[in-house]
Amino acid sequence: MKVLVVGGGGREHALVWKLKQSPRVKEIFCAPGNAGIASLARCVPIGAEDIPGLLAFARQEKIDLTVVGPEAPLTMGIVDSFSEAGLAIFGPTARAAAIEGSKVLAKEIMAKYGIPTARFAAFSEAGEAAAYIRRLNSPCVVKADGLAAGKGVIVCQTVEEALGAVEDIMVKGVFGAAGSRVVVEEYLTGQEVSILAFTDGETVIPMLPAQDHKQVYDGDRGPNTGGMGAYAPAPVCTPEVYQTALEKILIPTVRAMAAEGRPYRGVLYAGLMVTGEGPRVLEFNARFGDPEAQPVLMLLETDLVEIIEAALSGRLGEKEIRWRPGAAVCVVLASGGYPGPYRKGYPISGLDRVPPDVVVFHAGTALEDGRVVTAGGRVLGVTAAAETIAAAIEKAYAAVEQIHFEGMHYRRDIGRKALM
Ligand code: AMP
Ligand code: GLY
After folding, report:
1. Cis omega (within 30 of 0) for bond into 279
2. 12-36, pLDDT tens digit by residue?
3. Residue 103 lies inside a defined structural domain of this protein
4. pLDDT at residue 113 in the model
5. To test ligand 1's pocket by mutation, which of 145, 282, 283 has the most ligand atoms within 8 angstroms of CB?
6. Is the C-beta atom of 294 inside 6 A of ligand 2?
7. What is the mean pLDDT of residues 157-165?
8. Same domain assignment for residues 352 and 285
9. Is the pLDDT of residue 68 over 90?
10. 148 CB less than 6 Å from ligand 1?
11. Are residues 277 and 374 both part of a single domain?
C-alpha cells in the first residue's frame, strides 16, 4: 500500500520510521517532511495545513492510507475532507478534534460527564475573568480557548500574574481569535504523565504511559516549550493510576464524545496530573504527542498499519497490541534561544557517528547543498531503547555527545524522575 504522513516534525519522523517497517507498506510519502524523513520517505512540498493540496496529491498518487501528525489540519477538518472523497485517513474529524481545539469545550464535556479535572470557569469577557481571579485569590492557570502553538497556557502563582495573562490574551489579543475566550482553572500539583490511546470510537487501547519535559531547563525550570524530551514507560503511572485513567478518563471521554455527536476515532492523548487524589486531566490532544511519540513508537512491537486498519474498520477490540520490554528515552536538541527567537541554517555534524541502534529523529532540519542544517526550534530527538530506563538514558546521552551544531542546547535530566 501507499501511505502518506502529514507533518514534518520529530513525531512525523517517528511515524514514518514505524510505518515503513510494516511489510504492508510499499511506498511512503511525507508532506512536507524534513531532512531526516527524506532518507525514509518521498517528501512532497505541501504544507500540513494545505488541505486542498494534500487531497489533490492523495487522489493523484492513489494513496491508500493517510496518517496525520499535527493538530491544526485535524481541527481544520482534513479527516472530513478525505473521508468525503472516499480516502482512508487516520485521525478524528473536526468536530471530534475540537476536544483539543477548544479548551472551553473540553472542560464543559469533562464537567458534564464527571471526568476528573481541575475546577474551572470559562469567560468571554475580560472583566468577568478578572473578577473571578480576584475572588479566587490563589495560584491558578489561565488558558486561551483555541490553539496557540503550545503557548496559550499560563501558570500563575499570583493574582497579578493571572490578571496580566487575561489582559494579554483577551485585551491585547496575543493569540488572536484563539484568545476570545479563556478558561481559568485551579492550580494542581503533582507529576505529569501523558497517556495516549488508540480508539475506534468504542474500544480504547492505551499505549505505554510517557512523560514529557515541558520546561526548557533542567529541574523543570524556565519557560515552557513544545517538549524537551520524553521517556516511556513512566513509573509515575502506577498500575492503579493506569486503571483509573482508563476507567474514569479515557473510556468515559470516548463515550462522552459519541454521546455529544462527536464520535472520536484516532489517537486520544490525555495529559494528566497525578495528584494526591488520583489523576486529573490537564488537557486532551487529538493526536500523538511530540516528543512522546518518539519513545512510545520505538517500543511498539505490533505493526502500526494493522492497528490503524483495525481502528478504521471498528475492529480495534479484536486487536492485541504488543510492546517491547524495557524503556526508551528521547532527548531533544534545540536551537540556541529556543523557545524564544533563534537563528536557522547552522550545519549539523556528527550524525554519522551515532551508533546504529540509536535513532535520531529529525524535527526542524533541512537539506542545504547536500548538508543537513537546522531549520526549527526543536532540531533533533535522539532516541534510544534499552532494558532499563537507566541504560536507555545512558545510551541516548552517549549519542548526544557525538552531535553538534552552533548554539545547540538540551536538558541533561531527561528521564531522571523515573529513577527517583
Ligand atoms: P496544557 O497545554 O493544558 O497541558 O498545559 C501546559 C502545561 O501547563 C501542562 O503540561 C502543565 O505543566 C501546566 N498546567 C496546565 N494546567 C495546569 C493546572 N491546572 N495546574 C498546574 N499546571 C498546569
Ligand atoms: N508533548 C506535548 C504535546 O505533544 O502536546
Report:
1. no
2. 999 999 999 999 999 999 999 999 9
3. no
4. 98
5. 282
6. no
7. 95
8. no
9. yes
10. no
11. no
Quick check: CB of 80 below 6 Å from ligand 2?
no
CB distance 271 to ligand 1 below 6 Å:
yes
* Euclidean distance between CA atoms 168 and 179, whole angstroms: 9
Q: Does residue 195 contact residue 245 with C-beta atoms inside 8 Å?
A: yes
pLDDT at 151 over 90: no
Going from the Cα of 360 to the center of ligand 2, the distance in angstroms, rounded, reads 18
Choose the final residue of a domain: 318, 341, 367. Answer: 318
Say if CB 184 and CB 125 are below 8 A apart: no
Q: What angle do CA 124, 126, 128 make, to 5 degrees?
A: 80
Q: Contact at 8 Å (CB) between 297 and 385? A: no
Query: Do 246 and 302 fall into the same domain?
Result: yes
Global pTM exceeds 0.70: yes
Handedness of CA 10, 11, 16, 18 (dihedral sign): positive
| Ligand number with the minimum distance to the CA of 210 | 2
> Is 404 found in the same domain as 313?
no
Cβ atoms 51, 15 nearer than 8 A:
no
Residue 223 has pLDDT above 90, yes or no: no
DSSP 69-84: -SHHHHHHTHHHHHHH
293 plus 230 within the same structural domain: yes
Residue-range definition of the domain harbouring residue 257: 191-318
Res 246 pLDDT > 90: yes
Q: Measured from the CB, is residue 200 less than 6 Å from ligand 2?
A: no
367 and 341 housed in the same domain: yes
3-state secondary structure of 384: strand
pLDDT of residue 149: 80
CATH of residue 142's domain is 3.30.1490.20
Number of domains in the chain: 4
Mutate to test the pocket of ligand 2, among 151, 211, 281, 290 (most ligand atoms within 8 A of CB): 290
Ligand minimally distant from the alpha carbon of residue 151: 1
pLDDT in tens, 248-293: 999 999 999 999 999 999 999 999 999 999 999 999 999 999 999 9
Q: What pLDDT, in 10s, does the model give residues 305-317?
A: 999 999 999 999 9
